[in-house]
Amino acid sequence: MEKIITVFGSGIIKSNDKQYEKAYELGALLASCKFSVCTGGYGGIMEAVSAGAKSADGKTIGITMDSVSATPNEYLDENVIMPNWVERLMELVAIGDAYVVFKGGSGTLVEISALLEMMNKKIMKEKRIIFYSKFWGKVIDTVRDESKSLKQLIRKNVFFVNSLNESIKLLKKI
Question: Rounded to 5 degrees, what angle do the CA atoms 32, 82, 30 make?
Fold first, then answer.
């Protein structure tokens, strides 16, 4: 059965950004390990991961919205169009067997929060969340200290890595 890795991160970074390059590399690594890649389907990290996966003959899925004028990136094999932002977020969360998170803004913060809250409230099963770099470290530290259940959830499922190979090692264990 195919495993799908949902990747979150900034939609506004450009192709000359180091994070874009790393996301592209991650997409290629995921595809070479036979993972399918899911993103929000637009630019920035989403485009980079999808382009990288396609470069290694991987499968790419984009979850986009009817209600925005942005054009999905050209690297999608499948474009699942949701009617609104909330349903898009829920699909991005639901489709993933695990998650990788890059630097991002408020949209990425909402995605991280939704993952943690839905796992914490047992709305979905616990899954691995891998953060590439320490960018979100203080946010996770703050949330972890909120409750005993969040502390346990984060201890078991949240990982911070500085190399893409560390990400792949953790994902191969799902």
Answer: 10
Q: 9-49, pLDDT tens digit by residue?
A: 999 999 999 999 999 999 999 999 999 999 999 999 999 99
Q: Which two tokens stand for residue 170?
A: 């953790």
Secondary structure in 3-state letters for 123-152: CCCCCCEEEECCCCHHHHHHHHCCCHHHHH
- Cα 57 off chain centre by: 19
Q: Which two tokens stand for residue 22?
A: 């790393």
Is the four-CA dihedral 73, 78, 84, 85 of positive or negative sign?
negative
Fold category of 4-169 in CATH: Rossmann fold (3.40.50)
> C-alpha distances in angstroms, 57 versus 30, 51, 99?
10, 10, 20
> How many of the other CB atoms lie within 10 Å of CB of 23?
30
Q: Tell me the torsion sign for CA atoms 156, 158, 162, 167.
A: positive
Kindly report, residue by residue over 124-162, the tens digit of the pLDDT: 999 999 999 999 999 999 999 888 999 999 999 999 999
For residues 21 and 14, what is the distance between their CA atoms, to the nearest angstrom? 9
Tokens of 138: 């203080």
Q: Which residues pair with 161 in a beta bridge?
A: 132
Domain ranges of the chain: 4-169
